[in-house]
Design brief:
The protein has 459 residues and is of the alpha+beta class. The protein has 8 helices and 19 strands.
Amino acid sequence: MMKFNTHYFIFGLVIVVLISDCAPEEEKLSKVAERIEKVEVPSTIPSQRLGNLCSGEEECISFCQNNRRTCESYCKENKNDLCRTIFPPDWMPTYKNSLDKELSGGYCQGSGTVNFGAVPMKPEDILVIIPMGDMIGGHVSPIDHLYLYPIKSRQANIYAPANGTVVYVATSGRFIGQETFIQTYTIFIEHTCDFYTLLSLLDEVSPKIKEQIGIMGEDEQRHVRIPVSEGERVGIIVSGQSLDYNVYYTQAPKKQWVFPEHYTELGKRLIVDPFDYYVEPVKSQLLEKNPRTVPPLGGKFDHDIDGTLSGTWFEENTNWYEGLLNVKGRFGEYWKTHISFSPDPVDPSSFVISLGDFDGEAKQFGAKGNSPKPEDVRSASGLVVYELVEKGYADSSGNPWNFFEKGTVKGLRVDRRDEIQGVVLVQLMENRKIKFEAFPEKTASQVNGFTENAKIYER
């Protein structure tokens, strides 16, 4: 999942999938639910409270029915009389898997996948869907979710793609321009214990969800259980900002990374292509807004090919994907120690050179001549020189094409500019390492080789 910055929510835990027998757990959950529902509520005693969550038995029992995970977390640390009234002292949930543990708190139901019969955003409100694998700004490694951009002049309603339960709500935020900061919401919908969707960057959640979560401050989280139906409105986007959209499946195919353990975001390894689960006619309606025509149609963000340059690399001794604390700002700058040589998400016949720190900024470029291809660069290739050029897209007639001005069209190709923005040198070494150095505002003829500023990157 997702760095939790302006655009992302992060868990930052290594996935450990736990599988257990569900029958005993269901009996325990039934007893807890029965105890919560049948407890006789005396007159409220103001001194009985769960910290700042609630006060008095009546209020706290009602609160914990809808926010059990939050109450459990408090009661594990504060075993007061009210906690003992609500939760039996010997109760401890058994988690079905890592997503259940972090999102549903042991209460998930069902298994396997479901079909999606509703759009996350109405097709007439969608300007373009950007597939997974894009690289832009601080998103140096290929992005692991879809972007659904609404037409800017419209308010876009956001819908649950299938029946499920909203189990987790988090707040983050983003800037409009340089000064205006607005709060946004991320919600997770549990469809089964194995299958979840994420809808992020909502300007507001539905009144039904809002009633349950109450007022949330910046960077807060709520564990809830709010049933939603297929096609039910769960939020809105009013500012033209994209909807970030993910689908997670515990049985997702193994990602094409040399070292999957170096990607420590919970859920990142479980992300699947949303289009694989949509039924017609919804699938075709959404794909009309997606400019990518090469399978997988939802895109791809794992491009490592062992023994070649292809894929993502991390500066040596910088904690791989997670990055170092001293390079993280308020919204994270973990990407400063990343570089990637990966296919373009719309036109994978071209590749992108994505740099976390190019003269102090995260930037993306095309390579002059689109050669040599990263998958062809090996240790025997020796020193490789890439001249960096800006890139855009052109339609089938060769005319420049901007998604955000013109929307979606099929058959786009990467359009590389002529002006050279700089040079990078790279050499594939043994032990899955590369030597790398960037030279802003230089051409190949002005660079003679590595300097003392060259760095080592690893997988």
